[in-house]
Amino acid sequence: MSAHQLHVHHVNHLNHTAGGDRAQGATGAASAASAAVRHGGLAVSAPVSAGGARGAAQAMVPAGQWAAFDAIISHESGWNPQAVNASSGAYGLAQALPGSKMASVGSDWKTNAGTQIKWALSYMNDRYGSPNAAWSFWQTHHWY
Question: Could you list the residue ranges that cross the membrane (predicted)?
């Protein structure tokens, strides 16, 4: 089983155990991360730990965009919100360069995965139109 197939299997298993359909799985992920609040149209959990990052992101990212968002973050940081690129200094889940630009979303950008997720989703939407379009670009260029 490939890594992608394993991830899809894991997500499907989580959705099944959370109550069946994808919407119920996303609701379960949001409550597991912490109580979500609406801010600027995106759900933000306060604070989201590194361990809860993927579940929080799945609750924040539209279902049809999730696979692309997950693929980008997996490639960029391996879902490590403290990942640092040694050569460029890019930081966090989405490898923002400079990392401090995530402060536009929250002053806790260095430590809160939820803030980084919100910034990443906004970046992908603003620059490419969607995570799906950002992933398409990433597949061609291996950066976004």
Answer: none
